[in-house]
Amino acid sequence: MKTAILKYWLPVVLIALFASASVAQTNAQVEKARMELERTDELIERAKEAVRATNAPLAAVVLKQAIEIQHKARERFRQRQLLWAYKQTLEARELAKKALIRCRLTEQGETVVQRKLERAAELLERAKESTISGSEGSLRAIYESAKDNLNRAWEFYRSNQYRPALKLANQVTKAAREILKAANRQMRQYAEFERLSESVGDLIARVREKVINCGSEEALRLVERADKMNQLALKLGSEDKFNAAVRNLQNARKMAVEASKKCNGTEALSRRYDRIKSEIDRLAEEISPDNDAARRLLNQVYDQLRLAEDFITEKQTEAAAAALKAAQLTLNQLKKHLSGTER
Fold first, then answer.
1. Considering only Cβ atoms within 10 Å of each terminal Cβ, which end of the chain, N or C, has fewer?
2. Cα–Cα distance measured from residue 284 to residue 276, given in angstroms and rounded to the nearest whole number
3. Residues 55, 101, 32, 86, CA torsion sign
4. Residues 115-153 pLDDT 10s
5. Is 154 within 8 Å of 117 (Cβ atoms)?
6. What phi and psi values does residue 242 have, to the nearest 5 degrees?
7. What is the 3-state secondary structure (H, E, C) of the chain?
8. To 5 degrees, how large is the angle CA 210–CA 213–CA 217?
9. Is residue 115 a contact partner of residue 96, using CB atoms and an 8 Å limit?
10. What residue spans define the domains of the chain?
């Protein structure tokens, strides 16, 4: 009798146990999917606030995609298609992260334009002082035109049109530098600092644009550090501490190039660039200011290195290699000249 009862109830008990375990497992999966959906919702809300604050159009496009995919994930969850819900909410979360990065870069871009305008205004004021005592009417005409462009640039900036504002600021900066250079051709050290400053500033701006699609947090941190060093160099330059300013600019350029390498994998060319750059920097300290032939070769090497740097940043490896080869040849010619073996 007992055996018959056991045979009857044992299958029932086993079925009940398996059903209970299956329900517990399903409940755990539901809870996990719900938690992931809530995490994505929180990140999307942060991205919404950032987009409203920065008015970044590219970030808004990415955020819209994130919201649409998250909505689909919610629908999958309601239909108990938990695996699809999980995959889609992770996809939406990654898009929300990209939107936040774009907002951060846009905010930094606004600051960059403001700094550029302030720097242009400062240079133009210095140029004004030069034109007051200068006798060339052409310089005064250039100054008046640059002044009008600066006013227009500020108008664009206040209406959040940063690209035309930056373009005009660059034109004002260029005009102001032309006035200063024409007014005082003896300020060679200042001119060298300004040239390097413009090169590094433009490099940082180009690399910052590349990091938008790269999505590397490490690259972004390097760009931010490069920008801080660049700003310190500008401050030192305004105080006529050009040697310290140049050192900071060189470090800023290295960090910007390193940030670029995080996104494009041109390590071999960059190492070759660094080697030539290190050697030419060492030679530059040994060349006297009155050695015009050596200075001409020195400037050629630096120009070729700047071209190589641009090509490396833009992943044009063949052009970068050609520029580095030209820099090396000119460097060899400079060394021969300095050693007195050049005929």
1. C
2. 12
3. positive
4. 888 888 888 888 887 665 444 567 788 888 888 988 998
5. yes
6. -70, -35
7. CHHHHHHHHHHHHHHHHHHHHHHHHHHHHHHHHHHHHHHHHHHHHHHHHHHHHHCCHHHHHHHHHHHHHHHHHHHHHHCCCHHHHHHHHHHHHHHHHHHHHHHHHHHHHHHHHHHHHHHHHHHHHHHHHHHHHCCCHHHHHHHHHHHHHHHHHHHHHHCCCHHHHHHHHHHHHHHHHHHHHHHCCCCHHHHHHHHHHHHHHHHHHHHHHHHHHHCCHHHHHHHHHHHHHHHHHHHHHHCCCHHHHHHHHHHHHHHHHHHHHHHHCCHHHHHHHHHHHHHHHHHHCCCCCCCHHHHHHHHHHHHHHHHHHHHHHCCCHHHHHHHHHHHHHHHHHHHHHHHCCCC
8. 85
9. no
10. 2-97, 265-343
Identify which has the larger pLDDT, 21 or 237: 237
Asked whether 236 and 288 are in contact (CB, 8 A), the reply is no
Other C-beta atoms within 10 Å of 186: how many? 7
Q: Which two tokens stand for residue 233?
A: 């160099």
Q: Which amino acid is at 286?
A: E
Q: For residue 159, what are its two tokens?
A: 């209406």
CA dist 176 and 85 (Å) reads 58
